[in-house]
Amino acid sequence: MNLALFDLDHTLIAGDSDVEWPKFLIKRGLLDEAFYARRNDHFYEQYKAGTLDIYEFLDFQLEPLTRFSRAELDSLHAEYMQEHILPIIPKKARELVAAHQAAGDTVMIITATNRFITGPIARELGVELLIAVELEEHDDGRFTGKPAGVPSFKEGKITRLEQWLAEQGKTLADYEQSFFYSDSRNDIPLLSLVSHPVAVDPDDTLRTHAEVHGWPVISLRDPA
Known about the structure:
The chain is of the alpha/beta class. Helix content is 46%, strand content 18%.
């Protein structure tokens, strides 16, 4: 059996679900545009440079979730999916996921975006297994605005994957072939562990790294 891992943002979707969610809230008048834009630009530059403090970012990114009940959030998310996510899921991405599933591979999305945002996206792509940033909840189900456990970011993706594998009584070496598809320099640690790393529409740093190490570079974007 083989294992096929997929990053989500800028890999299986032609955009960033963590960016599209606040855009949606701003459009609904539920988030201050000027304040959010300044802070998000700050964190995005850190992300591109590989210097993002994931806990500082999560404090910022998760706070809006605390303002709504779970029922309100679920209703908002359904609209967000229709307006912001479905239009940026490329056909090639769906086909690649389906090809691995048809081959009998274990398919998983592993992302640094939180489970509230990414869970419905994974289901839309037909992927049951998801490693994402987990969220703390109050007794009534409302989110606290804090992550739970190890965030699945950079080396944290390795930690979380190893935890999942241990729960299955396996290690990565138990799979004949392991694939990881990602666009980001931040995923080089996990890409370096699998037997088949694939750079997908990569950033400049990952593209250079892939070329030096002989990794395939592909595009899943639909033609313009």
